[in-house]
Design a protein that fits this description.
mainly alpha; two-stranded parallel ribbon; 2 strands; globular
Length: 81
């Protein structure tokens, strides 16, 4: 895996409004792809079961407010498990 090669270097992930989200969702207008962007980002915001951090360090998005809210809620849910 990439993380094993890079150690603790930060990872940047920037799927915001990208074409692959439009392909999957069928949404032609990039400005209407925020929900898909959130889903793609949340898939990278995780920790492995063994305690080794494998999550993305930096998210590059257009709708910062929506992404921040989504990550805060996601992290609260994961912490409560």
């Amino acid at each position: 895996k990439l993380r094993k090669c890079c150690g603790n270097l930060p990872f940047l992930y920037g799927p915001s409004r990208k074409g692959f989200i439009g392909t999957i969702s069928g949404e032609d207008d990039p400005k209407e792809r925020d929900y898909g962007t959130i889903a793609a980002c949340l898939a990278t915001v995780r920790e492995s079961g063994n305690g080794a951090g494998e999550s993305c360090s930096i998210l590059r998005v257009h709708n910062v407010k929506a992404m921040k809210q989504a990550v805060l809620v996601y992290e609260a849910i994961m912490k409560a498990k």
